[in-house]
Design a protein that fits this description.
Strand order of the largest sheet: 3-9-8-5-6
Number of helices: 5
Bound molecules: zinc ion
Order of helices and strands: HHHEHEEEEEEHEE
Number of strands: 9
Distance between the termini: 30 Å
Length: about 200
């Protein structure tokens, strides 16, 4: 199903907050007014609900700004018209990345060898190698050997030019014995409206 493009789509963060009942009544009214009249944004809101069914706490976690996904969830989101940009990296690779005006999510597919791996933790590191955020026991797509990570476009659009890296490590059931699986370097170019 291809829905018409919405000329003024509700922001992803607003859809997530609306779904989580975290908007003020006035803001919720504004989202409802738009969504009731817009099939495209109705579908996108359905995508947030599908995300919640796939990973229970995903949409609530920090406003759905940074998410670990699975390939089937990505497919479900796409079928709901959630607008995504994709980057695919092998371990050790770097990529020049950016965010567009219409991207709800920017999805990174991080490949590694997960043979014999029980659990995987992921850490986002800044350009100096300082940890920014840590994700424990992330979903592993074992069939395709990858972990799928998404940033909300709403989070990325204010970012300046910057570099960061994601590090995947294998851990045992006691969350010990870390072993590096791969690092993935992102060189982000700042969003410029109309540019
Ligand atoms: Zn709309």
């Amino acid at each position: 199903v291809t829905l018409p493009a919405c000329p003024s789509p509700v922001a992803w963060a607003s859809l997530v907050d609306y779904w989580a009942h975290e908007l003020t009544p006035a803001d919720a009214d504004a989202v409802e007014e738009h969504v009731f009249a817009c099939d495209t944004c109705t579908e996108r809101l359905g995508g947030v609900g599908a995300l919640a069914r796939g990973i229970a706490r995903a949409p609530r976690r920090k406003g759905g700004m940074r998410l670990m996904l699975t390939p089937s969830l990505v497919d479900t989101l796409a079928s709901h018209g959630v607008r995504m940009r994709h980057y695919r990296l092998q371990a050790g690779e770097s990529v020049e990345c950016a965010v567009g005006a219409d991207d709800d999510l920017v999805v990174s597919w991080l490949r590694a060898d997960f043979a014999g791996v029980e659990r995987v933790n992921a850490t986002a590191l800044d350009a100096n190698g300082a940890p920014m955020e840590r994700f424990e026991d992330v979903p592993i797509d074992r069939k395709n050997g990858q972990v799928v990570f998404a940033h909300a476009g709403d989070e990325l659009r204010p970012w300046p030019d910057l570099s960061f890296r994601m590090r995947l490590v294998a851990v045992d059931a006691a969350n010990e014995c870390e072993r590096l699986l791969g690092e993935y370097i992102f060189h982000h170019t700042a969003f410029r409206a109309g540019g």
